[in-house]
Amino acid sequence: MSTSKSTGEWAKRRTYAIISHPDAGKTTLTENLLYAAGSIRLAGQVRARGENRRTRSDWMKIEQDRGISVSASVMTYEHKGLTFNLLDTPGHEDFSEDTYRTLTAADSAIMVLDAARGVEPRTLKLVEVCRLRDIPILTFINKLDREALAPEALLDDIQDKLALDTAPMQWPAASGQRFGGVMDLARNVFIPFRPEENEMSSGDPVPADQVGALLTDDVHEELTEGVDMARELCPPFKQQSYEEGHLTPVYFGSALRRFGIVELLDALAEVAPGPQNEKAVVKKTERVIAPDDKEVTGFVFKVQANMDPNHRDRVAFVRLSSGRFKRGMKLKTDKGRSLTVSSPIMFFAQDREIADEAFAGDVIGIPNHGLLRVGDSLSESGDVLFAGIPNFAPEILRRARLADPLKAKHLKKALESLAEEGVTQLFRPVIGGDFIVGAVGQLQIEVMAERVSAEYGIDVTFEAAPYETARWLSGPAAEIEKFGDRHKSAIAEDIDGDPVFLAKSSWEVGYSEEKWPDIAFLRAKERNR
To answer: Are the C-beta atoms of 404 and 459 separated by less than 8 Å?
Structure first.
């Protein structure tokens, strides 16, 4: 049920994520949304040099150096009387687990497409995750200031590949050097593209009957034909269809040129849903947690260490699901651990401020020293248990080797801390002293190596391990123990102490499944959220 029309402070929250294929312009759009909302004075651009290259959402050194997002971050801003929590997710596929966890905290998403490329592979996977979470999607087709596919071809691409109905809210006047602006189909006004403007490149709206004076004859004719076709053939926007995930409203623009940004902000304020009901288990009974419930509840969807390198800080990102949170409250985890939240923080990328209160839909940071883990549920009673967040079997396994063996304890602490964040997974072999690090992609390994060096001052190399994949073991304890005795050199424990089989090949996994039918060899392990 949508809460976007409800009353109360919680109903003014809009928590959304931005998803895209790498290089579609997600980080640039993030920066300029914040700029348009007045949250920052200067939008950092990843193509700039020096200080200007350092975008506000990309705060880690590796992100600033490479101009990519490899860690989820949270930015809070206000627009049109609403409080928006923007969850910036990593665009690179090697960080798909971090993206998945972040999407569990979102009520809606903006899908960014490159106008010259349409729907790309990474976008397909992210939309599948949104479907699993019933997250409604608003589409922004970016880079219209460059040569692009025809708008009708882009809409067809979305419909064919994503099985989503498209409701164009705007229609572009050509693209590239001929790009003249967009027609707002609902208001029947034309928004001209003014690339010479310094602030935003959107000119003042012009009535539809005056557009001919702004465009060349050929562009005007293309626009007129496209608008007529869109109105006749495309389905109209319906809020219910959007919220149910069957239809996506489509907007056009250029994040780099800051064109269409204000209109996108306004669209979010108009259609994006507020906090939603959450399924949970309370005292072993399934229940729905509504955002207006009095008890404060929430869940940890991310843990980040060393956001401030000068202080060994560790912050849990908590999405509030219900209640009115106040600074100094005592909360309990679903495992019965109690903590007093004396210094909760609101995020603006690496910047932060103390939060005196927060409501359902908000994301707060809780500083802690290892008490909170990804997947933990929090509530005043300690009786609330939300659904689970899975860990997936890694596709790359590497052995951690120290240059200085005397720093073994420091390495253990560093790897455990980063594994708790979800940067990589960590396995401790039952036999042998070297840690095995698991990752979805090579870039995760590179990020871990750089962070271990920069944040902990440890020189470590990650070399090839004699294993290809990992599976969690589930089944009767006696059978698992018997299997472990037969395969001691291939048995490890994960960071939670759960047994893991490190296999030399997928064939070995299949063979073991046949030989040990009472044991489940799991590709994913669900931690309670």
So the answer is: yes
197, 179: one domain = yes
The DSSP H or E segment spanning 122 is helix 121-132
| Whether residue 38 sits in one domain with residue 104 | yes
User: Based on the structure, what is the number of domains in the chain?
Assistant: 3
What is the percentage of the chain residues whose pLDDT exceeds 90?
Answer: 57
Q: pLDDT tens-digit profile of 354-393?
A: 889 999 999 999 998 878 888 899 999 999 999 867 778 8
Written as six digits, the tokens of 130 are 């949104």
- Residue 471 · residue 523 · CB < 8 Å: yes
Domain boundary among 352, 368, 386: 386
- In three-state form (DSSP H/G/I as H, E/B as E, the rest C), the secondary structure along 135-172 is CCEEEEEECCCCCCCCHHHHHHHHHHHHCCEEEECEEE
Q: Is pLDDT above 70 for 468?
A: yes
Q: Which residue has tokens 């959450």?
A: 278
Assigned domain for 3 exists: no
Please check whether residues 151 and 290 belong to one and the same domain.
no
Sheet order of strands, 170-173 included: 170-173, 181-184, 189-192, 206-207
Coil, strand or helix: which one is 355?
Answer: coil
The residue type at 502: L
